[in-house]
Amino acid sequence: MPDRRDQILDVAESVFAERGYAQARIDDIAERAGLAHGTIYRYFASKQELFGAVLEARLEEMNRRLAALCSETRTAGALVEALVAVHWEFLRAHGRLVEVGLAHLPTLPDSMRARIKELRRTTRELLIRAVAAVLPPHGGISPAVAADALAGAVGSVVMCRFWEAEAGPDREASLRGMQEELKALLVPGLSGSDVATGADRGSQRGGA
């Protein structure tokens, strides 16, 4: 059973998602949670602090999922498939919060934005670790570059497809198709297939 703070975060997310940041009120959150107005302020000093805490909690959730990938995936194909699924399921659970968060993030205090930046840095480090585990040895591909490319491709495609499929009849079919398409696009690069580094091309020209 969630503790009181987690309960407030869950309810606050639903209110922020439904009404947006500007229209959400602490009174609304307290009423939906079945709490007295003052109880919220025992945990959070302001609506802004509560909103920042919701964003932090969801980023921490994403990082826990990515940490699991590091121990569970052993091939490039499995990594792409799992990463697509993680992003897709995260948007299913928190998609509207993502929209509200992107719109309101620039207005948060520096300290909150610094904490969120730190969590996003952890996200990148986790993905680099997962990518490093599936790259071929001596393949000439930097895990950091590969992780950034993978995150950009998967994140952009999943978000676009998610909003397109939001009102559609078969989101699961969209997920499966997207996994196969992104594996076809990304796995050859991660596996080192048909990839030559600058040094490799130079040696090939020299030997021709």
Polypeptide structure, described:
The chain has 208 residues and is mainly α. The protein has two domains: 1-44, Arc Repressor Mutant, subunit A, CATH 1.10.10.60; 52-193, Tetracycline Repressor, domain 2. It is 80% helix and 0% strand. It is built from nine helices and no strands. The longest helix has 29 residues, at 76-104. It is elongated and about 60 Å long. The N and C termini lie far apart (68 Å). Mean pLDDT is 87; it is low at 195-208.
Write the topology of this structure.
Blueprint: H1 4-23, H2 26-33, H3 37-43, H4 47-72, H5 76-104, H6 110-132, H7 143-165, H8 171-191, H9 198-207
Helix pairs in contact: 1-2, 1-4, 1-5, 2-3, 4-5, 4-6, 5-7, 5-8, 6-7, 7-8
* Gyration radius, in Å: 21 Å
Distance between the termini: 68 Å
Domain count: 2
State the secondary-structure class. mainly alpha
Count of DSSP H/I helices? 9
Low-confidence stretches: 195-208
Query: In one word, what is the shape?
Result: elongated
CATH architecture of the largest domain: Orthogonal Bundle
For this structure, what is the CATH class of the largest domain? Mainly Alpha
CATH superfamily of the largest domain: Tetracycline Repressor, domain 2
Sheet with the most strands?
none
Q: How are helices and strands ordered from N to C? A: HHHHHHHHH
Strand composition percent: under 5%
Q: Mean of the pLDDT scores? A: 87
In CATH terms, what is the fold-level topology of the largest domain? Tetracycline Repressor, domain 2
